Amino acid sequence: MGSSPAGRTTLLTPFTALAYLGVMSSVTFLGLGTMGAPMAGHLARAGHTVRGWNRTPGRPSIDGVTQFASLREALTGADAVVLSVSDTPDVEELLLGADGAIQHLTPGAIVIDTSTIAPSATRRMGEQLATKGILMVDAPVSGGSEGAVNGTLTVFLGGSTESVAAAQPFLAAFAKTITHLGPLGAGQVGKAVNQLVISGSYLSLAEGILVGQKAGLDPATLAGALTGGAAKSWVLENRWQRMAEDRYPLGFKVALHRKDLGIAIDLAKELGVPVPAATLVAQLEDALIAAGKGGEDLSALANQLRRMADAIDA
């Protein structure tokens, strides 16, 4: 038996009891992209037996991860399945499709979805998995590709006490901060809020860096000064240089943030909350995507502002 955060006592399945004890398990990781590949590697280094699968074959090898071409082979016998894919249809196919997790997992297994999708979709899929005795948590992450590589991601966690207990040993392998926000779907709400907040952070930093440069300030000196005051943030510390140099190597794709921001804006509309800053950022991201820059890091918002400034100067 285990105690919930609220002090309630929860009966444990055999697997969740093992999870409490930290026993190593068989994990299937679905989605070995920029985020998923290093996360799978951390799970292997933590001692778990890790099987990997990616929709597009030919991914680079990952130490300790056995990659399968067949989704069925990857899923069969797994104690836990971790997903890191792009959007709701991808998650639905991998969990509920003809060859998805619901077909191959046994009762007591845990699904950990680190993707960012709509809270309502998460709840619906979790209900279907529960009919087969399969546990699920929504565990969208923040921290970018750097956080995935370094194993320092932030997890917004939703699910029952039992499901959260089962997920913890796996999440701990690649995350530094794990916060249980409530029942299934609550993690996706937390991630939506995160995407609203960072959209304003990226845009305001882009505005500030560009104004400072146009006024003749050295951006490195300016960033150092800002870091010492109330403007200090992860975005400032990690993205000012990209904005100053107008160079945006892959970190968190504009197109992916635009997808996430759409989820957040839709949620805000459902709740009757105006989100003017996020709506503006969405429009700027649409312009970047139309210009072929959807695969660049989100800090490319500064590039869109530069192009707008150049148009004004012209």
Keywords:
314 residues; alpha/beta; Rossmann fold; three-stranded mixed beta sheet; 11 strands; 14% strand; disordered N terminus
Write up what this structure looks like.
The protein is of the alpha/beta class. It has two domains: 2-184, NAD(P)-binding Rossmann-like Domain (Rossmann fold), CATH 3.40.50; 190-313, N-(1-d-carboxylethyl)-l-norvaline Dehydrogenase, domain 2 (Orthogonal Bundle), CATH 1.10.1040.10. 52% of the residues lie in helices and 14% in strands. The chain contains 14 helices and eleven strands. It has helices at 14-21, 36-45, 71-75, 88-96, 101-104, 119-130, 144-150, 161-171, 186-214, 219-227, 234-245, 254-271, 276-290, 301-313, and strands at 2-3, 9-10, 26-30, 49-53, 65-67, 80-83, 110-113, 135-138, 141-142, 153-158, 175-182. It has a six-stranded parallel beta sheet, with helices on both faces. A three-stranded mixed beta sheet has the order 9-10-11. Strand 10 (153-158), helix 8 (161-171) and strand 11 (175-182) form a beta-alpha-beta unit. Helix 4 packs parallel to helix 6, helix 9 (186-214) packs parallel to helix 14 (301-313) and helix 12 runs antiparallel to helix 13. The radius of gyration is 21 Å and the shape is elongated. Mean pLDDT is 91; it is low at 1-22.
